[in-house]
Design a protein that fits this description.
- With about 350 residues, this protein is of the alpha/beta class.
- Helices cover about 35% and strands about 15% of the residues.
- It contains 11 helices and 12 strands.
- It has helices spanning about 50-65, 80-90, 105-115, 130-140, 145-160, 180-190, 215-225, 290-295, 300-310, 315-325, 335-340; strands at about 15-20, 70, 95-100, 120-125, 160-170, 190-195, 225-230, 240-245, 250-255, 265-270, 275, 285.
- It has a 12-stranded mixed sheet.
- It binds S-adenosylmethionine.
Length: about 350
């Protein structure tokens, strides 16, 4: 059976699975401490989708065409059953590509078990190597230090996981660290992915002036280490890739703000409480877990998911410029809830 296409002709290939809305970091661009403080209402214990429920839903997502699953959050490694989830995805459901995005804090102790479970790849978020800038970008909680993230990265690499580094870039905060981060990643042999600061959610103080366009980063790095574009590995690849001409690996650029890629967006997102979202910038989701808990059988779940995908029209990043011009704002879900 060929996989269903949405209203803009896009198939579903990639599922982002948020396994928790909690995080031990308070990155101001994602979970500012003033908003996500002790009074914040996080999901309750019974809200979380269980592994047994995930098993049922994931089977139907696979039937719809999903080939790649990224486990994210919140901080996914705060949830102890992530290795079991990886085993389910890889060994039971045979998902070809299973990846994890993490802040790296709990990676050193989990890397070997994740690899043994079948995890293919890990993306570690690291916005700076300088202690003060790292603290500023990660919310600077007690004891949060860059050394521990570097240990996590080294452990993941030693365990046999493919490692990429994610750096969110903000002008006037860590943009000055771009050359140092690039030099480090080149020396270590890691692909560094620069992420434009995005207007996800409603509380991260996003301003266009804080966005460093991907193009500017390519020009800056190319002046020191000449770069050339790589052709995309597959249609719908999120990052634009460039390789260093001297053979020292490559970089990626996620330019959701300055060069939106909605036309090739093959992603759906499932929140930790089992709601399906068809865009990172969506306002509302479909309560699939609710349907499952109300007794829907597998065929009913499959047609629920198909209906949602067939009706999909989202292209927020393409529309952003117009919305800004019209001073129109939308209430959006938070990144920590739906995952990156
Ligand atoms: N806790 C994990 C981590 O830190 O990687 C996974 C979740 S986090 C929401 C996933 C990714 O989204 C991280 O690389 C993070 O830096 C990125 N992110 C969060 N808020 C962002 C924003 N406003 N703009 C761009 N990237 C953002």
């Amino acid at each position: 059976m060929s996989s269903p296409r949405d209203q803009l002709g896009r198939p579903l290939r990639d599922l982002r699975l948020s396994v928790t809305d909690r995080c031990n970091f308070r990155c101001p661009y994602c979970m500012p401490a003033a908003v996500f403080g002790p009074g914040h209402a996080f999901l309750g214990d019974t809200d979380f989708i269980s592994l047994a429920e995930l098993r049922r839903l994931l089977r139907q997502f696979k039937r719809l065409g999903v080939e790649k699953v990224r486990i994210t959050g919140g901080e996914p490694l705060l949830r102890p059953d992530v290795p079991e989830l990886v085993r389910l995805l890889k060994q039971e459901l045979n998902i070809p590509d299973v990846a994890l995005t993490t802040n790296g804090w709990l990676l050193a102790r989990n890397a070997a078990v994740l690899h043994a479970a079948g995890l293919d790849r890990v993306n570690v978020s690291l916005d700076s190597l300088r202690p003060e800038t790292f603290a500023r970008m990660s919310g600077g909680g007690p004891g949060l230090g860059v050394e521990r993230i570097l240990e996590g990265i080294a452990a993941a690499s030693a365990a046999g996981l493919r490692v990429k580094i994610n750096m969110v870039v903000q002008r006037g905060v860590n943009a000055g660290d771009i050359p140092e981060m690039a030099a480090w990643a080149r020396a270590q042999g890691f692909t560094l992915r620069f992420i434009e600061f995005m207007d996800v959610g409603n509380v991260n103080g996003w301003q266009r002036a804080l966005v460093v366009p991907a193009r500017e980063i390519v020009e800056q790095l190319s002046a020191r280490w000449p770069l050339e574009p790589c052709s995309p590995a597959y249609r719908g690849e999120v990052a634009a890739r460039y390789r260093y001409r001297d053979g020292a690996g490559e970089i990626g650029l996620i330019s959701s703000v300055t060069e939106p890629f909605c036309r090739d967006c093959h992603r759906a997102r499932l929140s930790a409480d089992g709601k399906l979202y068809t865009c990172l910038f969506a306002s509302a989701g479909w309560n699939v877990l609710g349907a499952l808990r109300a007794g829907a059988d597998d065929e009913e779940i499959f047609s629920f998911l198909s209906r949602v995908w067939l009706g999909r029209l989202d292209r927020y990043s393409d529309e952003r410029a117009d919305l800004l011009l019209r001073h129109e704002t939308r209430q959006k879900i938070e990144m920590s809830y739906i995952g990156g």
